[in-house]
Each structure stands twice: as C-alpha cells, then as structure tokens.
Design a protein that fits this description.
The complex is a heterodimer. Chain A is α+β, with helices and mostly antiparallel strands. Chain A has helices spanning 4-14, 23-28, 33-38, 58-71, 123-131, 151-157, 164-167, 202-206, 240-253, 264-277, 298-313, 326-337, 339-343, 370-384, 410-429, 448-467, and strands at residues 19-20, 51-53, 75-78, 95-98, 105-109, 114-117, 137-138, 174-181, 186-190, 214-222, 224-225, 229-237, 258-263, 288-296, 318-323, 360-364, 388-393, 398-403. In chain A, 53% of the residues are buried. Helices cover 53% and strands 7% of the residues of chain B. Chain B starts with 5 loop residues before the first helix and ends with a helix. Chains A and B meet through helix 2, helix 3, helix 10 and helix 13 of A and helix 1, helix 2 and helix 3 of B. The complex binds flavin-adenine dinucleotide and iron/sulfur cluster (2 copies).
Amino acid sequence: MIETSIINKIKNIIGNRYISNDPVELYCYSHDYTSRALSWIYDEYQFMADLIIKPRNEIQIKEIVDLANEEYIKLIPRGAGTSFGGQFLPIDGGVVIDFSVMNAILEINPEEHYAVVEPGVLYKDLGHELKKIGRGYWIPCNPGSAEVCTIGGMIANNASGESAIKYGTTRDYLLNLKAVLGTGQKVQFGSLVKKSVSGLDLLSLLVGSEGTLGIITEATLKFKALPETFITVIASFDSKKAAIEMAGKIQEYITPMSLEIADQAVLSGMNLYLSRIYPKLSLKVSTVALFVRLDGDRETTGIHAQKIKELFMNDKNASDVKILTEEEHEYLWKSRDCSGPSLLRLLRPFRNAAPYAPAILDFAVPFSKIFSFFEALSQIMKENNLGYGIVGHLGDGNLHINTTISLKSEADFKKIGDLQKTLIDQTMSLGGTITAEHGCGLWKAPYLPLEHGKEGVELMKKIKQVFDPNNILNPGKMISPSKLGYFPTSSN
Amino acid sequence: MKNLNEKQILGIIWKCNLCGFCPKDFECPGFDLETRWESSMARGRISIVHAIMQNNELGFQYSPLAKERLFSCTGCGHCFYACPSGIDIPSIITLGKKKLVDANNYPETHKLILDNIKQYGNPFGETSPRDSAWPELKSNTEANTVYFPGCMAIYRLPEVALDTIALFNKFGENIRVLQNETCCSGVLYRTGHSTQLEEVTKSMINDINNNPPERIIFTCPGCLETFKEIYGSELKEKFKGIELIHFSEYLIDKLTDLKNNSDEIAARLENILEKPIIWHDPCHLARGLGIYEEPRRILDTLNIPYIEFEYNRENANCCGSGSGVRSAYPEFSEEVTAQRLEEIKQLGAKTILTACPFCEYQYKAVIEKNGVALEVLDLNSLLTKLLF
Ligand SMILES: Cc1cc2nc3c(=O)[nH]c(=O)nc-3n(C[C@H](O)[C@H](O)[C@H](O)COP(=O)(O)OP(=O)(O)OC[C@H]3O[C@@H](n4cnc5c(N)ncnc54)[C@H](O)[C@@H]3O)c2cc1C
Ligand code: SF4
Ligand code: SF4
C-alpha cells in the first residue's frame, strides 16, 4: 500500500486525470493470461497494483523515479500489455506506468531516414505514417502483435517476429534512446548516425531489458524503403522432417523475408479465424505447412517465388503448392500473426468453465537441431497426454508451443509446469535459448542461469545494481527472479 | 450477441488471452481515446466481468467505475469481430450488466425503460394508441406475413413504418401487424434485465403462437436479433418454424420488380436528395445478423450511387446509441455519433442512408443538435420517395 501523502505527491506530478487507484482500474492492470489462470487455484497469483499513472513527458517520469527512490516504491512500466512472459505484472504492488498517452510521433526525417517517437506510440501508427511518405517506408521488425503493441514495449522486449530471419530485431532499428535510469539519471544512448563503434554499446543494454534498468522516454528508429512487392508461397507437407529439409533448401537459395511453419492444430485455428475475416481463403489442414514470404522488386521477387514454387513442386512430400494473390497474402499473415490466440477457437468452452493452458512457450534451437526438438516434443506431449499446436519462425529455429488443454485441477497446472521445465532442459541440451522473443519476464526469469550460467547472471545483477541500485524498476522480472516465476510442478 | 448462461460465459472468458487485439482505438465506441484507461477497453471490461464472477469479495458489482464501463458498451460487436480467439465480448459484458443489476448498481434511466415496458409495453412510456397510422393492418388477421415495425418506428419515426407499408402494398403483399405488439424488449436483455424478458413479452409471443404467420418481417435489426438470438428456448418454441427476416432480405426477392422502375428512379434521384449518399451499416443488422450485402445489392440494382465509410461491413463503426447507452450516457453517446459525422464530413457525403430506426434517430438527433447540414434516411423511405 502506498500512503495517501505519497499518492498526493504523485498526483501533483501527474495530474488527477491521469492517475487511478480505483480498485476496478487496478485490477484491469494486474494480471496476464498466465497469472489469471494460476489465480484460479493459487491465491498468491492474484496481483494488484497500488496505483496506475499515465505520464506525458520525461520531466514527470524523472520526478516519479526520484520520488520512487526516496520512498522505495516499485515502478512497473507498461506499453500495450501484450507480453506473454508476465513482464508487466505488478507482482508486489507498486505503481504501473502506463505509456499509452505518451504517444506522439515527434519527428519523421525522410532525408536521414529516421523517426523520433515517444514510447507509447503504437508500431502500427508509426508504420501508417511511414507508408505515406514518398514511395513508402517501414521498420521491418514487426512482432505478431504489431497491430497493437507499442514501440516502448517492443524496445524493452527487443521484439521481433516473422521478418527477423531477413530483417533482424527491434535492436537493429534503434539509433538513439532517451531514458531515465533507476537511479533517476537522465541518459541518452546512441546517436543519429547509422553506425558508431565509440565506447561500450549502452543502448543495447537497455534494449530487451524489460523495464528493469531504465524507463525509455524517447526513441529514434531508422526506417527502410518499403519493398515494391511482397509474394507468399505456401505448401503442405506430410512430415515435419520434410518441411524442415525444405526450409534448409530454401535458405540455400535465398533468405526469404519470412519462413514459417504451422502444424495441423494451428492451421485449423487459423482457418477458423480466416472464416471470420476472409472466408475466401482456407488453408489445407495437413501435418505441417510452410509459408514463405518474399519481398523486393516485382521482377526479382516474381522469379524467386517461381523458384520456391518449383522447389515445392519437385518435393514428393509437398502438396497444395500455391502462390497467393495479394489479398490472400494479406489475410494469411494477419491470421498467422494471430495464430496463437486463434488456436483458442478450437477449444470447447462450454463444457469446462475452467482456464486453458496459458503457457505460450517460446523457444529457439539451432536450425540443425529443430527436428530433434520436434521429436522430443512429440514424445513429451504423448507421455503427458497433452494436446498442442506448434507455430514458429522456422528459419530462426524459433518455435511457439501452445498447449490446448483445459486446466480442471491442480494436477493439470502442474503438468504445464513440468512441461515448461522439461522443454527448457531439452532446449538447453540442444544449445538453444529459453526465449527467443517473448522475453524472460516473470515466467522464464528463474531459468536464466541455465542459459547464462551463474557467472553470467551475476554480471547481469551487477549491471542492474548500477542502473537501479534500489531495485525499484520492475521487480521480479528477468535479472531479479521471483519464486512466483516458477510454475507449480509435480515436485513442488 | 447470444443469450448464454453463466457457465458458458465463464468458459468464454477463460479463453480471453488478453492479447489486446480488441480495443482498436475508435473502433470501440466505449474506448476512451483521450485517457486510454485499460478499463475502457473491451479487454478491461472482460476483466471486470471476470472479477465480478470469480472474486465476489472484491465487490466490483457495487463499483461506480464498473457500472460506467459496462453500461457504456453499446454492444456494437466490433470487438467480437476483431478478436482472434472468437470471444463473444458483448455477451460477456451483458452478463456483467446483469450482475450489476442484481446488485442494484445500474443507470437510473434503465430503470425507467424497464418500468415503461412493464407498464406501457414500450420503452418510452408512450400511452397514445400505437397503431393509429395503420389500423387496417391490425384487423387483418388472415395475412400470412406479419410486419413488425418495433417501438422506434411506432413511436418516434412512424415514417419508417408507413414507407415500409407502402412498399408492401406496392408489391401486393398481404400483411398484418400483431394485434398486441409490445416492445421486443431486446433493450432489457442488453441492459442486464434479461430475467424480465419472458414476463414482458409473453403475451405478444402467445399471440404469435395463437395465429402463427408464415413469416415475420422486421425493419428494426435490433428486434430481429432479439427474436433470433436473444429469446430463450421457451419463447422461441412458440414461434418455431416461422421465418424471421429483415426487410432488406425481403427486398432481395423483389429486385426484378425494382429493376423495372430503375429509369424512373434515376430521374427522380436527381431531385429528391443531396448526394453523395453514404451507407451506414447498423451494428445489429451487419455484425449482429450478417446482413451486409443485401442493402448494397438493392442500391446497386437500382443504380443508386453511394459511397462507403472507410470502415464498413464487418468493420463498420457504431452510431453510438445501442444497448441503452443513449439514455444512460447521452453526452458520451452523442460524442460517438459526432465522430461518425466528422468521418462523413471528411468523405463529403450529404445524405446518410441506413436500415435501422435506432441509428437513424440517433443521427438525426445529433445532426440537429450540432447544426450539421446532413440528411438521414431509411432505405425504405428512400425507395418510397423514388417509387411513388
Ligand atoms: C498475438 C501476439 C503475438 C505476439 N507475437 C510476438 C512476436 O512475434 N515477437 C515478439 O517479440 N513478441 C510477440 N508478442 C509479445 C509482445 O506483444 C511483444 O513483445 C510487444 O512488443 C510488447 O509490446 P507492448 O507494448 O505490449 O509492451 P508490454 O507488454 O506492455 O511491455 C513489455 C515490456 O516493456 C516494458 N516497457 C514498456 N514500455 C516501457 C518504457 N517506456 N520504458 C521501459 N520499459 C518499458 C514493460 O515493463 C515490459 O517489461 C506477441 C503478443 C501477442 C499477444
Ligand atoms: S482480442 Fe479477444 S482474446 Fe484478445 S484481449 Fe480481446 S477479447 Fe481477449
Ligand atoms: S461491443 Fe462495441 S462498445 Fe462494447 S466493448 Fe465491444 S467494441 Fe466496445
């Protein structure tokens, strides 16, 4: 609980209109899919922030951080609240800083190809403005949530998605960042030039730090010319192995903009969503499908698309090969972006008024190890009698595993916890990462030492100590794990 | 929107993975664009209902903020369309409203609507004879087609009913109205008073049951949606087998007749209204009942030129009046309409055409209040102007 006198001080900084401690508002900011499901059985997952504030400028943020240091108040930055890792959860109360109204596009500089934005700007809104300039520009590090997430959230998560194989992650588009560190110090990392090797790369430290080191107040992102055209080629495969082999062959020929895999369950979910938004497109529900997106000038992209089509056609394990029309292309990617949530369309809600398995499991393994990962996964799922769907950025070895069970008892929750742990072990044994894009947040933080070793995590803690000595920023996340981050398992 | 029980709704809520694809800025009329509070997003409203259902001890059923957030939802269904997980958000919010009604925490004006429907059979508390404009239709007990004008046309926009009746006559349709038409009471369901639904509509539905027509044709999409989706199984049993359609669907069968008049229509169109015309998809007709193309086909057949909103069909934006929002939060409701009027202004349209008396009434009221130079017409009224 934050004392009334402190709340009044915060009110003086932020203004009445942009502050709330109404319990209804607090509740709306206090859970994610996973914690809400867990709270069905475990009371300790019923989190509640003390206060929500909506700053509009850097001065206010600086004053809030200073006050938080004086009074030891926890601060939890939040963009659009779309993270899957529990990044924005106020696990120990505190003040949620919602950036949704600090959302001005401050400058778009077509000559230097950069845009300066406040952190609450939505990626899609910036994209919309960039498209309007000249022949059109873009920042191609779009996550699946591109339609709804903020630039601040993308930076703090170092988000990336279907285009990462060719275009990289949010980090690759950042030139400059302004932030208020946990110490209250205002900093500016980076510059307006496209390359610089002067000094340690402090900007990169903030990127992907999930709001644990500093609060981003302004970002300068570079943009690129929009390709003239996009073409998507799809095909069904009768085995995962065949699809992976094909993905290898494609990459020998070209690095496509996207190289995605979706299994039977995911394809069925996508079809249900498509039937609502674009019934003209229905995907063949096969063992797995590959979606290859190409971009570039019209002529070359057309040639590449034909080549990919040929590769597919010459593979006896492939069928339903198709080059999509422009409209089909648009809706395929819209449904692919939402393939996780649309998987839930497959589940029968009426029978069990109980939560569904919340863990959207984000892993990556080296490309050459993907098939081993799949085999192990199928074994684990069979042993545990769990339904699931897989979708992923195959080119990056980045897979999302969504379980499709209803959690009717504590034992079911523990099954998910066991699964999480087993898959983390499996990923580590294959030389992968516990999270390629969704982030550590609350739910993966405890496993960080498995990937980085004790020493690695100790170094991270020392950095945290420098940036945020009083541990006021986003407690329990990433570098400072909470025991709440451990999903219940059969052994605890 | 569907009338689902609590267990079904809870099952749906658990499927909301909080992905955030539902708020969509101004596409949710209830979303506060200026302050962007989470509780004003569809996702937040679901959380509020979830808390009310799961965490009684939080006491949200008595909260003024919960009341404002849930009762300012117009039930437009835009969020339902946008949700990748297929969450029927309007139904969830409606259940939340019911919980608040149970806790006696709901807008005063809704109490008045309820009392009026109970006492006078209409939400306005009107006492004047409702069928004065078309008495012969009431005494005709033979016709196999019933026309259901609905309260808005009967009490506020009688020209919609009169024009529709004129069109029926033109097509030689033998029609009647119910002897005992009361409010369909969809508004009660949509404002959380679903428990009263059966009681207040029983006698009308019994009437239908006693002299069943082959079909009932509606001009108000809200009434049609209520008959089709909201009445419970007991009520539905009583009009089982009767075809329920909207007038725009009826007109599809008359396209050949209409086409014969297209030269005449083209000539008249020049003089009777200001162009361009813009088509407004009513939420209950479009997302609610899936009727998007019928009105457009009618206009196309008659070569009546019209323009579209940037957001149309499944993506169309709400006029701001539904689910008792106009009565409970008039200022807010009118702000939403003003946003639509601004879009219309940008597009340069001069006449709004629609097929829902509620939307028409709302537009008219705000146009008049704000002194905007725009005309609003029901599709049927346009057709009568062109055909007679
Ligand atoms: C359907 C769906 C698909 C998704 N697909 C992808 C994907 O393909 N790739 C991917 O990477 N992610 C994906 N995500 C996860 C998530 O949406 C993204 O990582 C997104 O960028 C998070 O942005 P947000 O605005 O929602 O931030 P939030 O979730 O609100 O916050 C994210 C983190 O940023 C911090 N933060 C926010 N603003 C600031 C600030 N100004 N200063 C400091 N810290 C801040 C928060 O504390 C938190 O740690 C997906 C999510 C959904 C729902
Ligand atoms: S879009 Fe659907 S699943 Fe996502 S937050 Fe909204 S209601 Fe929930
Ligand atoms: S039904 Fe309409 S008003 Fe209600 S939450 Fe959904 S989009 Fe908003």
